[in-house]
Amino acid sequence: MGSPGYVPLILALSASCFQADAQIPLVIATWPNQVAVVEAWSSLQSGSCALDAVEKGLHQCEIDQCRGSVGYGGNPDEHGETTLDAMIMNGDTMEVGGVGQLRRIKSAIRVARAVMDHTSHSLLVGESASEFAQNMGFLSEDLTTNISLSMHVKWLNQRCQPNFQKNVVPNPETSCGPYKPIMGPLSKKHGIPALIGNVHNHDTIGMVVIDKTGSIAAGTSTNGLRHKIPGRVGDSPIVGAGAYADSTAGAAAATGIGDIMMRFVPSYQAVEYMRMGIEPAKACQKTIKRIQKYYPQIFGALICANRTGGYGVACSKTPKLNQFHFMVYNPLKASEEIVDCI
Amino acid sequence: MWPCQQHPNPKRENKNCFLPLFGLNGYVLHLAWDTLHSGGSALDAVEKGCSQCEFEQCDGTVGYGGSPDEHGETTLDAMIMNGNTIEVGAVGNLRRIKSAISVARAVMEHTSHSLLVGESASIFAQNMGFLSEDLTSNKSLSIHAEWLSKKCQPNFWKNVFPNAKTSCGPYKRKKGQWSKRHRMPAHVVNVHNHDTIGMIVIDKSRSIVAGTSTNGATHKIPGRVGDSPLVGAGAYADSTAGAAAATGMGDIMMRFLPSYQAVEYMRWGMEPTTACQKVVARIQTYYPKFFGAIICANRTGGYGAACSKCPGFDQFHFMVYNPSETSEQIVDCI
């Protein structure tokens, strides 16, 4: 069973191991996305459940285009289009709603919630997800803005660097597409473009909320990877990868290079560790370390919370990321906090 | 050559050990085995085996011409996972391309991504040289027509109007009090509308690969992606621990990451059958009568399977290949 998270613990044990007094209600989110957390917290204060608070908080980031990585007008794909991924999970019932590569609909998290509330499915993708959204009353509109357009044009002028193609011709390291597959022996190199480990093109907002009844919900929203291959879905809307919630154990949410992180199902694994009684910070760290065994310089971070409101965060140290900022609101605090990466 | 599980002489190495698969005929297995035998990798074997099922439309639940969605279209989900590198390639809601597992492999080998979906995945596939063609057949068309004439029952809608239990769509959101009950369509527990092919291969170098391919749930809402192409849900492979693959009600099962969890259990040293059973039991805590099964294999070639007992389903059949015979095995559901 779970560890006694209600036992007061020393705050800020070390730079990279963060433990906190367990308190609920709790809102914790990746990156310094204050608007989202404020919205979620005040929603809780007005009597909303955890699920509604997650939806409201993430939706605020979609409206505000948090850090350019959430919502419309950011991170265009190879064709210049902005498409959205989001998920929401109910830790009481284990229900999930997710959308991947949602086109022309701004409120991805709300559509994800509609998937959960109005269908028996867990994930809808692509053009068809947009049709579903329109049936559910969402407005179809262009997600492109001058900013996303100029990002795309600049990228085209840089010979489409960086990109996510490999083992193709023409050489994707020096040329735009379209590309055709190389026949014959393939390079085994993973081909993570050098530039993509950049805090400004990998910022999913992931949020965990525990309400006063102890119900836990988690969710994510993102416009994905800048210059992604059209149709690319990362970790964010995938249950267990981008986020996971189980009111009997805890919840976690991830951010970073989703293509890699999703292969390790990190949010699910972190919750499993907490289920076994491991403290949230440790649960997060152990999960990051597992990924680092295969990808030592993975760009990524994980937030973890157990059922009594204990929380912890861990991130993977890379040349471009050695500290990770996140937001925490609980009865004792409303603050931006930092952990050193491991 | 000996079956993968136990060898009478433990000192003798198991060569080309070929592991559990389910939902296929013997020929498909034989083909995958032949691929290994001719020097192909475990990746090649999984791809060949799943491809054959796509080509043969195994059971009507893999490949073109089966399981039409609400619009009558057949769309495909597939994944392939390399247990050595933990790389994954997958496609979801792939339209108009027949060879889903091969496109999944192309995602793994020609991009840094792990999952491509929808119309855009089809464009990627065409760039990779795959042919765009209609996946509808007379059979899938008539399945769809029959469904329309039955007031679109069963379907996967809830809390909408008109009432999804008595009427076709299009539907709009219902205002007011909603049912919180997870709505499982009554007829959906049917081995013929929820069959993914899942395959695990261990080659002689002990590299483990897992893969899945399916045309998804019949009458799914367009755009629906189930567990099959999602890493850790439909399948998982880690050459240091084992592999697992799942079939059944993907919408539900994916919430529990069954393949990933089964491999975790085997990583701790649990026997494959027990690992599979524990995973099924965990899902049953929330969904006591869910329809689903999982196969498990550990790195030394032990294997097992488990399934969830529900009306119409109390035994699960799967195949294990060894060169002198193809054996179909059965487990009783729990």
Brief descriptors of the model:
heterodimer; A: 342 residues; 8 helices; 14 strands; disordered N terminus; B: 334 residues; 6-stranded mixed sheet; 4-stranded antiparallel sheet; 27% helix; globular
Explain how this protein is built.
- The complex is a heterodimer of chains A (342) and B (334).
- Chain A is of the alpha+beta class and 342 residues long.
- Chain A is built from eight helices and 14 strands.
- In chain A, the strands form three sheets. In chain A, strands 4-3-2-8-7-1-13-14 form an eight-stranded mixed β-sheet.
- Chain A is globular, with a radius of gyration of 19 Å.
- Residues 1-18 of chain A have low confidence and may be disordered.
- Chain B is an alpha+beta fold and 334 residues long.
- Helices cover 27% and strands 24% of the residues of chain B.
- In chain B, β9 and β10 (242-248) form a beta hairpin.
- In chain B, α1 (26-37) runs antiparallel to α2 and α2 runs antiparallel to α3 (100-110).
- The longest helix of chain B has 15 residues, at 42-56.
- Chain B is globular, with a radius of gyration of 19 Å.
Short description:
With 342 residues, chain A is α+β, with helices and mostly antiparallel strands. Helices cover 26% and strands 23% of the residues of chain A.
- Mean pLDDT of chain A, rounded to whole units? 90
What does the largest sheet of chain A look like?
8 strands, mixed
The low-confidence runs of chain A, each spanning 5 or more residues with pLDDT under 50, are: 1-18
Q: Which value, in Å, is the CA radius of gyration of chain A?
A: 19 Å
Indicate the overall shape of chain A.
Answer: globular
Number-wise, the strands of chain A total 14
Query: Percentage of helical residues of chain B?
Result: 25-40%
H and E order of chain A? EHHEEHEHHEEEEEEHHHEEEE
Quaternary structure classification:
heterodimer
**What is the number of helical segments of chain A per DSSP (H or I, 4+ residues)?**
8
Distance between the termini of chain B: 32 Å
Count of alpha/pi helices of chain B = 8
Widest β-sheet, arrangement of strands of chain B: 1-7-8-2-3-4
Strand content bin of chain B: 15-25%
The ordered H/E elements of chain B are EHHEEHEHHEEEEEEHHHEEEE
The greatest interface here is: A-B, 63 and 63 residues
Structural class of chain A: alpha+beta
Mean pLDDT of chain B: 87
Radius of gyration of chain B: 19 Å
Sheet with the most strands, sense and barrel status of chain B: 6 strands, mixed
Distance between the termini of chain A: 28 Å
